[in-house]
Amino acid sequence: MTPFEITILGCGSAKPTLRHHTTSQVVSVKGTPYLIDCGEGTQVQLIRYKIHTGKLDHIFISHSHGDHCLGLVGLLSSLALDNRSNDLHLHVPADLEPILQAQIDFFVQHRNFNILLHPISFELPTPIFEDSLVKVTAFPLNHRVPCYGFLFHEQPGDRHLKRECIQLYGIPYDAIPSIQRGLDFTTANGQVIPNDELTTPPDPTRSYAYLSDTLVVPQYTELLQNVDLLYHDATYCAGDEALATKYFHATSLQAAEFAKACNAKRLLLGHFSSRYKDENGLLEHATQVFPHTLMADEGLTVAVD
Ligand SMILES: [Zn+2]
After folding, report:
1. Is the pLDDT score of 1 beyond 90?
2. Ligand 1 centroid to 63 CA: how many Å?
């Protein structure tokens, strides 16, 4: 199965503390990293957790609050010192684009690579990016400023060739890739062997959804139905619903109820407030509703499976 995993670089809210960095994480598919959010100090976290930025070509920013994007210009500035040459794509909410462009023009003007800004401004879930590994859909969340969630869908892999068929039908090595892509095979004596006889279906595709920062968004339970891993804002603990509502965040209990409604396989809680000395309460409340819950933590890598 293709490696598909999430590494948490920061999962604290508002400002960095000795316990948590502000928000950033890496989605890694088959060794290719995609960065989601870029709080202050993200570039140091990338070094600490051995994420190679040479292959980082796409960064997704959820919204314009500083705890999700203040590390971006610093990271770009360092990439410019790295002799990078490949294009870098920034997918950012439209309100952030002019501010970011001005900072790039001022701080990152001497560079050998293109920075391409892709503004996000949609009222409905919209595909924003696709490559050979993943397809990414952005969807508006419910926060104090324009804010977007991201749904990463793994692209379908190749079909599996039945080993015994290679000898049985005399399949040459160079014919294997096309059979794995679904084509039939014609033997040396002209017999056409249907692909179904030669292969078994590809591995099921997996998905990862990122929702931070936001109130609970029940309108997306269908979009996110059966998602394999759901990262959700859990800034507050149950009992602090009034605060969560006031600041457009969620409690861990609300996140768990949402994960249950989505029939998610697993829930990863994050964006923790520094007001709680002990975060175990957040996990306890969540697991009562949704047992397959994990707490984010800096350096934690979670496989999407
Ligand atoms: Zn925010």
Report:
1. no
2. 7
Q: Where are the domains of the chain?
A: 4-157+203-303, 160-200
Is 67 an annotated catalytic residue? Answer: yes
Beta-strand relationship, 229-233 and 32-38: unpaired
- Going 164 to 168 to 169 to 171, the CA torsion angle's sign is positive
Kind plus residue range of the DSSP H or E element containing 151: strand 148-154
The answer, yes or no, to whether residue 295 has pLDDT greater than 90, is yes
* 250 CA from centroid of ligand 1 (Å): 11
Q: Say how far apart CA 189 and CA 229 lie, in whole Å.
A: 49
pLDDT in tens, 8-26: 999 999 999 999 999 999 9
The chain-wide mean pLDDT, for the chain, equals 96
Model's pTM, two decimal places?
0.94
Report the b/e string of 175-207 with b at 16+ CB within 10 A: beeebbeeeebeeeeeeebebeebbeeeeeebb
Task: Classify domain 4-157+203-303 at the CATH topology level.
Answer: Metallo-beta-lactamase; Chain A (3.60.15)
Q: Average of pLDDT values for 154-178? A: 95
Mean pLDDT, rounded, for 27-44: 97
Contact 215, 249 (CB under 8 A): yes
For 180-272, list the strands marked E by DSSP.
Answer: 185-186, 192-193, 199-200, 207-211, 229-233, 266-270
Strand partners, 7: 26, 301
Span from the CA of 20 to the centroid of ligand 1 (angstroms): 16
Of 67, 213, 228, 240, which is the active-site residue?
Answer: 67
